[in-house]
Design brief:
The protein has six helices and ten strands; from the N terminus they run βββαβαβββαβββααα. The protein is of the alpha/beta class. A six-stranded mixed sheet has the order 1-7-8-6-4-5, with helices on one face. A two-stranded antiparallel sheet has the order 2-3. The protein has helices at residues 45-49, 91-107, 162-165, 193-204, 230-240, 250-262, and strands spanning 8-9, 17-19, 27-29, 57-62, 112-116, 137-142, 154-156, 175-178, 183-184, 191-192. It binds zinc ion (2 copies).
Length: 274
């Protein structure tokens, strides 16, 4: 499988890597050592007042086109384009597609995917008070660096307090996908959007890059991933604990069924990558 340099960019805040002695391949940014790395209301009362989220859970939303990147973001002058255009999806297909990816992390840990909410439409990184962003993990397509050379495909911010990320704002969890790459299911010369978003959601939930080859969280795109490596599971469970249920939630069943008709490759999500 062709490898491309520097495909994924983790948190954009400067990070010095610190290897956990408990999970050899599980690397976290030491800038977050003393600060929250998991989704939790904490001091963020605006999120609590919105009924969203519970500790250990996060909602997500799709940013509309035209939302500017924040000053903390590396592509400051760009604004989002239509996410649905990346795969030519309807909003229903995109919702099922994204839930099926986030549910992989949900299924193997006590993290809870709270599902899609309407995006508040505020600027990337803006405060979520007073009708702000609403989605904990906001997802948008944007021009990052094109599709040649040192190609960053996407990036996401780890969960964090408002003050840490942007004064008065909350960029934690938010994700940008480079709209200049050719996205697909990894066949026919396309890049697999499912795999890239599975990796980026790992960041959105608090994981940093791993040095374990074959893991979802390795920093270089190396082909399709449809399930978590044991190293990824160790990492997500270190943050949220082990899964408390092995029975799929009703919403997950509905999404799986709708996904089968909508996209076609959800049935492969449990297939391990070789
Ligand atoms: Zn990454
Ligand atoms: Zn960005």
């Amino acid at each position: 499988m062709k490898k491309i340099n520097i495909i994924f960019l983790g948190i954009v805040l400067g990070f010095t890597l610190n290897i956990s002695p408990t999970f050899a391949g599980y690397i976290r940014a030491n800038g977050f050592t003393l600060l929250p790395t998991a989704w939790d209301p904490g001091l963020d009362t605006a999120r609590v007042a919105a009924g969203n989220p519970a500790p250990g859970g996060a909602s997500w939303s799709l940013m509309a086109a035209g939302i500017l990147a924040d000053a903390v973001d590396p592509h400051l002058d760009n604004s989002t384009t239509d996410f649905l255009a990346l795969l030519g999806q309807t909003s229903t297909q995109a919702s099922a597609f994204i839930n099926s990816i986030l549910d992989i992390w949900d299924d193997d840990s006590a993290f809870t995917n709270l599902g899609e909410v309407d995006d508040g439409g505020s600027s990337f990184g803006a405060s979520n008070g007073a009708g702000g962003h609403l989605g904990d993990i906001r997802i948008g397509a944007i021009f990052i660096d094109g599709n040649v050379g040192s190609n960053v495909l996407a990036h996401a911010y780890q969960p964090c307090t408002n003050a840490l990320c942007v004064p008065g704002g909350s960029i934690g969890g938010d994700m940008h996908i480079d709209n200049a790459n050719t996205w697909g299911d990894g066949t026919g010369g396309t890049l697999d959007l499912f795999t890239v978003m599975l990796h980026e959601f790992g960041h959105s939930l608090g994981l940093d890059h791993s040095d374990v080859l074959g893991s979802v969280m390795e920093p270089i795109y190396a082909g399709a991933r449809r399930s978590l490596h044991s190293d990824d599971i160790n990492g997500i469970q270190a943050i949220y604990g082990a899964s408390t249920s092995t029975v799929p939630e009703p919403s997950a069943l509905i999404l799986l069924l709708s996904g089968l008709s909508a996209i076609g490759f959800f049935g492969r999500r449990r297939k391990s990558i070789t």
